[in-house]
Amino acid sequence: MHKNITIKCQDLGLSSDSPTMRMHLWFETEEGVLFGLGRLQLLRQIENCGSLKAAAEKLGMSYRGAWGKIKTTEELIGRKLIEKAGCRRAGYQLTPFGSVVANSFDTWFREVESFALVKSHELLPFSLEKYE
pTM of the predicted model, to two decimals? Predict the structure, then answer.
C-alpha cells in the first residue's frame, strides 16, 4: 500500500521549493519521427508567420531542416500539412488537415500533461508545478 510521505525539496538536494514537470512526447515509426512538440511548434509558427522560412528562423533552425521535418511527416502520414498561400511568393499556410493534426496533438498533449501532473501529486513525495 502506498503511504503518502511529504518530503521538502531541500531534503532531496533541490534548491527550489517548486520543481517543474516537463514532458517530451512524440510519435515515431521505423522511418522517423511522425509528430511531436517540435513539429507542433513549427506548424504554429507557420500559422503565425505565414512563412516556412520565418517560422524556421523563429525556432532557430535552418529552412532546410524545417522543410525536411515537414516533408518527413507528410510522407509518413500520406497527407499534406502545409501548402502555398496564394501566389508564388506568398509563403505557406496550414492545410485543413495540418490544422486538425496540430490542434488534435495540442489537445492530446495538454490532457496527457494534466493527467501526469495530477498523478505526480498522488504518487510522488514532493510537489511539482506545470511547466509554463
Answer: 0.80
